[in-house]
Amino acid sequence: MKTYSVKELLSEGKTQQDVVVKGWVRTFRSNRFIALNDGSTINNIQCVIDFENTDEEVLKKITTSAAIEVKGTLVASQGSGQAVEIQAQTITILGASNPEEYPIQPKKHSLEFLRANAHLRVRTNTFSAVMRVRSALSFAVHKFFQEDGFYYVNTPIITGSDAEGAGEMFRVSALDAKNPPLTEEGNIDYAEDFFGKETNLTVSGQLEAETYAMGLGKVYTFGPTFRAENSNTTRHLAEFWMIEPEVAFMDLDGNMDLAERFIKSVLGYVKEHCADDLAFLEQRLLNEEKTKPQNERSPMPLREKIDFILDNNFKRVSYTEAIEILRNSKPNKKKKFDYIIEDWGADLQSEHERYLVEKHFECPVILFDYPAKIKAFYMRLNDDGKTVRAMDILFPGIGEIVGGAQREERYEVLVDKMKTMGIDEEELYWYLDLRKFGTAVHSGFGLGFERLVLFATGMTNIRDVIPFPRTPKNAEF
Ligand code: ATP
Ligand code: MG
Ligand code: MG
Ligand code: MG
Predict the structure, then answer these.
(1) Is 409 in the pocket of ligand 1 (CB under 6 A)?
(2) Could you say which ligand is closest to the alpha carbon of residue 242?
(3) What is the pLDDT of residue 340?
(4) Aminoacyl-transfer RNA synthetases class-II family profile domain: which residues (predicted)?
(5) Distance from the CA of 3 to the center of ligand 2, in angstroms?
(6) Residue 244: CB within 6 Å of ligand 1?
(7) Measured CA distances, 137 to 141, 243, 246 (Å)
(8) Kindly report the CA angle at 357 between 313 and 166, in degrees rounded to 5?
């Protein structure tokens, strides 16, 4: 007898055939109907057991989350749910699960409660759906770039340069924790840190990706990045995955085109390949909406939101125009955006970004040409001498999803900029070399993978779209 996944049985299983399936019990009703799930799909297969001929000991152990093997015949289903079900002949308990102790009951738990059970939450419909969508998105990322002529580059996780994220990096230490080298005063000698050099966990692979773009042409990284930000928001993690393409001979307009094409492509892939999971997640959200007061309900169901992105052009707006809009906006009358009116150079706060995306334009927005002062040293200076070729993509419900730029390719200008911003030229000699030997216009962006998963799944807290979230005081396992 052949073993099948639940997904295979439900989508292409031939009736009247003997099958084996293994999974975890979701529910067991009336001593007869087991809803079995093996993680391959959101859907369960119903197994109808022969109560009379099933051992009493086995019956007792068919409880929620027990791992079982079912042997039986696939038949057309009598009930309304699925097209097929299994007429079970033998049930084998592979791993019992004591219902008195199992923390996750079939009743609906809060997401907070499930977060505290991060090792078991994938047994729930919501998390298994999110994780399947995450996996599909991650495949779609590689598919898009590979089919578009990009090469995948692995940039280092441990890095000696701290040029970009000064202050928000995690330090890496190779010291023997039990027996660290000590200074004469008896303190730990961090000068000996990483075999004599101070190193950190990467906050972005961009500078290294640029190096490879200036030789391979079109490259992307897709790996973990780390930021020691002690912020407890629903959009920040201390460890998150970032997608960073970098392309030689591409300017900022090309960068915007690439980012828009990329986002549409991966969301289109998920729409096509995760239909059941998206339908489930959408229903979950609709049920949640019903518990809210009428005026707080979100008007657009999840799949329509995705379609909206696929069908509409992102609105491109310069920072200066955005400031104008904010100045003339209603909330301004309530003095909410006051400090921006006084200061053209201010960075936008998330409430400004959300106003632009959700109230003013009502579609994704690409903001570009930011004041040089609020952006990193490597961004291409415009002829006005005060703005840089930076772009941020803002998404409804999420805020910033992408940060990118055309890079400063002119050696002299870059050195000047580094001097005024106090960036160590010696440490970044390799970065400057790219401008000395065959420099070229080039651009790229960074997209936070979890923010993309948030959008695609309709989840609202970033802790719920990564298997093991790392946030302040949360890194037990
Ligand atoms: P934010 O303004 O939201 O803090 P940022 O401007 O600091 O983001 P960038 O340095 O531009 O972030 O990084 C590129 C992208 O990485 C962001 O647009 C976002 O999608 C994602 N990102 C940044 N920080 C985090 C984080 N702590 N957790 C998850 N994703 C993040
Ligand atoms: Mg940040
Ligand atoms: Mg930002
Ligand atoms: Mg940014």
Answers:
(1) no
(2) 1
(3) 67
(4) 131-467
(5) 48
(6) no
(7) 6, 12, 20
(8) 105
Atom of ligand 1 nearest to the CA of 392: 18
pLDDT at position 165 is: 52
- Class for the domain spanning 3-102: mainly beta
pLDDT score at 52: 86
Q: Is the pTM of this model over 0.90?
A: yes
Beta carbons within 10 angstroms of residue 167's beta carbon? 8
Centroid of ligand 2 to alpha carbon of 80 (angstroms): 49
Residue nearest to atom 29 of ligand 1 (CA): 236
Q: Which atom of ligand 1 is nearest to the CA of 227?
A: 27
Residues in the chain with pLDDT < 50? none
Report which protein residue has its CA nearest ligand 1's atom 23.
Answer: 448
Domains 3-102 and 123-168+203-464 in one fold: no
Domain map (residue ranges) of the chain: 3-102, 123-168+203-464
**Ligand 1 contact via 243 beta carbon (within 6 Å):** no
Provide CATH code, domain 123-168+203-464: 3.30.930.10
Q: 464-473, pLDDT tens digit by residue?
A: 999 999 988 7
Ligand 1 touching residue 236 (CB < 6 A) = yes
pLDDT for position 464: 96
Query: Is the CB of 237 inside a 6 Å radius of any atom of ligand 1?
Result: yes
